[in-house]
Specification:
The complex is a heterodimer of chains A (260) and B (598). Chain A is α+β, with helices and mostly antiparallel strands. Chain A has 2 domains: 166 residues, Serine Threonine Protein Phosphatase 5, Tetratricopeptide repeat, CATH 1.25.40; 62 residues. Chain A has 9 helices and 7 strands, in the order αααααααααβββββββ. In chain A, a hairpin with an 8-residue loop joins strand 2 and strand 3. Chain B has 4 domains: 125 residues, Sandwich (Immunoglobulin-like); 132 residues, Immunoglobulin-like; 138 residues, Immunoglobulin-like (Sandwich); 113 residues. In chain B, the strands form 8 sheets. In chain B, strands 22, 24, 25, 26, 27, 29 and 30 form a 7-stranded mixed beta sheet that branches. The chains are: A alpha+beta (260), B alpha+beta (598). Chains A and B meet through helix 2, helix 4, helix 6, helix 8 and strand 3 of A and helix 3 and helix 4 of B.
Chain lengths: 260, 598
């Protein structure tokens, strides 16, 4: 009975997210970047959606010479923690080694104009703020049934507005525009949904494009300057959510040593 | 211009009318004394009189004169003592057919019952200039019937044409769209809202250059003896996938406005050009080096300068010129260069629309930075495209270039950044420098987003709680304000409480009597004191309560009354069945009253 219990404890310890995270970090420290990346991806598949995991996975991919997935994972980390400066700096660093600096897709106009303020707020923060304002609104409304106080209407309107703004912001953060990153050195984008179709333009590893539509194994992508066309989904890493593993093909940057 | 001119003439004629009021007059002249062959001008006829006959233009061999006036103005003027006068100005469009002096013979019109002749008009016709508008061959003059019996459909029409209907994927197809309208100044064609904004057919399945059809020079054409003025647009289409595609029908809803002898008329006109089916064939098996370009191209490469210093770049320019979709031309692949860095090419496209279709010059400029001194060999660059005329893939090859690189003394230091076709380890190290390390210290890893159920709970709980609070408050207020409601609501619980103490009471009959009486008084909001079984019976009868439970309660009340009035004390054993019966009857009655909402 005791040996069985010990084995169970060991299995539980090894498969716990923190243990897996430490194991991945150790693999990265030892220069086994592909193994580290696989372990980080395992963590993500297990439901751990932490900006740090995506950041580390980005480093592992970059060090393993996979520029596209590295860019995608830095983007994921920044979506979860917009104030994660390390991720922003490594993203800039990764993009500096990209062959072409294609402008990233912009958020929708209403987000740029009305919701400019939520750019640096994390999804958790805006969700919590929305929930708090929502509860506060109803609590104030209930309080008003018992006791009227000065400026109660103004306060109610303010709290309702804040709840609405944070609610929309939380929704926008939970449903970000679909963005994909080119994961191969050259990714042809075609006019038609057919691998024999004419090539419209090419993406380089690390190029970020907006995904307008998905049909089977094809993505209809568009660049910020308005070019659009179909490309194979296997050549792209979707930033998500959902967080799908990056395709395990080709290299965008050379395989090099990591930094820890 | 003619309209304004004729109107001005009519006004002048009216202004001068009083001076010549005594007799009718006829004046004929041309708007231009010198015209080019093919030029259209107007012969103006001014007639003044009280009664004016028909004006018939004579035919002249060197001119084509329209038999009907393109514009007509009529004005009345009153002359003191002589009644009204009528001034008619008509403009007849004419076109010069041969050069030389042309004499339009005198025109005779019956005015006030007398024939009046005009003076002959001389027009000099000179050869057509180089920039004159294109004209159809000289016409012999249309039959008068054609003009007289003009149908609405003859006023304007659309045409779409393509240069080929069977093409390969990516092969250019020249689409020409023409809009013809009758060349008559008195006829106007526009949209029902005004203006002449045409909407072009959507060419789905094609990549189009330019995105919106380009307007070409206008032209004149003659169809069935009528002269038309045409506007043309052109677009080059490139099929993006094989199969059967269609250039859809071109449709335009228009309105026609015409000034006729009988006055202005208007009509609706639905213009339509037929769809054009196009068969798109797939390209044959492609070689690996196929660039993606389909069309006919020329390929040139050059390197400047041929002598440079170490780390100072030279420019390799590759030009691809020809008909075909410039966007489909991928960057030519450069072979790996030993001892040099090659940047990503800068691409420039200059599309040129010429009469043959789209011709574009696509330029790729590569910055080649030698890092070693000596002779740098740039091997030939290949460009493989598909020629739809030859129906084969064609490979063009640039010559090899040698660049002489002098030593600079700064080994290893790059002056030009850029991607390398063959990256070297130094560059990789440089790229890695500055990458911030991974994060290893984390208190707790965050799981995925909270569940949907949690979000729904947060969303729904506050309003539900608020609703519950509101209901509870309203209930409390009613209890406080509505005494009968409060009594009825609490009657059952009070009776239960009272019944629990019946067995322990000194006078059990009295206690049971009071409990039942109290329930009935609470339920119907009546004063409990002095209520007898007779009152209760009357109450039940008055409210039509005929339940067995009510009858049983009444019986219990009577039993208790008898015991009270007889001064008996009911034994515990005698009261217990009464108590059970009272409880059961009260439950039934309460349930029934609730159901009946009493």
């Amino acid at each position: 009975m005791a040996p069985l219990f010990s084995i169970l404890c060991v299995v539980a310890a090894v498969s716990s997210p923190e243990a897996l995270f430490d194991e991945a970090n150790a693999a990265y420290g030892a220069g086994r970047y592909d193994e580290a990346a696989a372990l980080y991806e395992q963590l993500i598949a297990d439901g751990v959606h932490d900006a740090v995991v995506f950041f580390n996975l980005g480093n592992a991919c970059f060090s393993a010479g996979r520029l596209g997935p590295a860019v995608a994972n830095y983007e994921r980390a920044l979506r979860l923690e917009p104030g994660f400066d390390r991720a922003r700096m490594n993203l800039d660093h990764a993009l500096a080694s990209a062959q072409r600096r294609l402008a990233p897709p912009l958020p929708p106009w209403w987000e740029q104009t009305i919701f400019f303020w939520h750019e640096h707020l994390s999804p958790q923060f805006v969700s919590a703020a929305a929930a708090l304002c929502w509860c506060a609104f109803w609590a104030l409304l209930g309080l008003r049934r018992y006791r009227r106080f000065a400026y109660s209407r103004l306060l109610l309107a303010g709290v309702a507005l804040a709840a609405l703004a944070f609610g929309i912001s939380a929704w926008a953060k939970a449903h970000p525009p679909a963005i994909a990153v080119a994961s191969q050195e050259r990714v042809p984008v075609r006019y038609a949904l057919d691998d024999t179709g004419t090539v419209h333009f090419e993406l380089s590893a690390g190029d970020r494009v907006r995904v307008e539509e998905r049909q089977n194994a094809w993505l209809l992508v568009s660049t910020t300057d308005g070019q659009r066309g179909w490309t194979e989904a296997a050549a792209m890493t979707l930033v998500g959510p959902p967080y799908t593993p990056a395709p395990s093909v080709t290299a965008g940057t050379p395989k090099t040593g990591g930094a820890e | 211009m003619n309209v304004r001119w004729i109107t001005a003439a009519a006004m002048c004629a009216v202004a001068l009318a009083p001076a010549v009021a005594g007799e009718g007059s006829l004046k004929v002249y041309a708007t231009d004394e010198v015209v080019e062959v093919g030029q259209v001008f107007t012969i103006v006829v001014e007639v003044e009189g009280r009664k004016i006959g028909d004006v018939r233009m004579p035919q002249v061999s060197q001119l084509y004169i329209e038999p009907r006036p393109s514009l007509q103005r009529s004005l009345f003027s009153a002359v003191l003592g002589q009644g009204q006068k009528f001034t008619q100005v008509q403009g007849f469009n004419a076109r010069a057919l041969q050069e030389g002096d042309v004499t339009i013979p005198p025109l005779t019109v019956e005015i006030d019952g007398k024939p009046v002749s005009s003076k002959p008009v001389v027009v000099r016709v000179v050869p057509a200039g180089a920039e004159g508008p294109p004209l159809p061959p000289a016409a012999t003059g249309p039959e008068e019937d054609n003009v007289t019996h003009l149908s609405v459909e003859d006023v304007a029409f659309l045409r779409t044409e393509v240069d080929k209907t069977e093409v390969y994927v990516g092969e250019p197809v020249s689409l020409t769209m023409s809009f013809y309208r009758l060349d008559e100044s008195a006829v106007r064609v526009s949209t029902p809202e005004g203006g002449i904004e045409l909407t072009f057919p959507e060419t789905e399945g094609f990549y189009s250059i330019p995105e919106r059809p380009e307007e070409l020079d206008g032209l004149y054409a003659e169809f069935e003896g009528r002269r038309y003025r045409g506007a043309r647009w052109r677009q080059t289409l490139f099929a993006t996938s094989p199969g059967d595609l269609v250039v859809p029908p071109w449709e335009w809803n228009a309105a026609v406005y015409a000034h006729t002898v009988r006055g202005p008329v208007s009509a609706r006109l639905d213009l339509h050009a037929d769809p054009i089916p196009i068969t798109v064939k797939p390209l044959p098996k492609r070689p690996l080096k196929f660039n993606g370009a389909v069309g006919q191209f020329t390929f040139q490469a050059q390197v400047t300068p041929r002598n440079t210093t170490q780390n100072v770049p030279v420019t390799l320019i590759i030009r691809v010129n020809g008909t075909g979709n410039p966007a489909a031309i991928a960057e030519p692949k450069l072979p790996a260069l030993e001892g040099a860095h090659v940047s990503e090419p800068e691409r420039a496209v200059q599309p040129i629309m010429d009469p043959e279709g789209v011709t574009a010059e696509t330029t790729f400029s590569y910055q080649v930075t030698p890092v070693k001194a000596g002779a740098l060999a740039i091997p030939p660059v290949e460009f493989c495209y598909f020629d739809p005329v030859k129906e084969a893939f064609v490979t063009e090859k640039s010559p090899a270039f040698i660049v002489n690189v002098a030593a600079s003394g700064e080994n290893g230091r790059r002056l030009v950044a850029g991607a390398s076709i063959a990256p070297e380890p130094e560059r990789a190290d440089g790229a890695q420098y500055g990458l911030l390390p991974i994060v290893t210290a984390v208190n707790q890893l965050r799981r995925g987003p909270s569940s949907r159920a949690g979000a729904v709970t947060v969303l729904l709980f506050p309003p539900l709680a608020y609703g519950a609070l509101t209901l509870w408050t309203a209930r409390q207020r009613r209890f406080a304000q509505d005494h009968s409601f409060a009594r009825a609501y609490r009657a059952k619980s009070r009776m239960r409480k009272r019944l629990r103490h019946v067995l322990d009471a000194g006078d059990r009959a009295d206690a049971l009597y009071r409990a039942i009486n109290g329930y009935i008084a609470d339920k119907f909001d009546l004063p409990e004191a002095g209520m007898t079984s007779t009152d209760v019976r009357d109450l039940f009868e008055g409210r039509a309560i005929t339940q067995d439970a009510a009858a049983r309660l009444l019986d219990i009340l009577r039993t208790c009354e008898r015991a009270r009035y007889a001064g008996e004390t009911l034994s515990r054993e005698a009261v217990e069945p009464l108590l059970d019966s009272a409880r059961e009857s009260m439950e039934h009655l309460d349930l029934w009253l609730r159901k009946e909402s009493r």
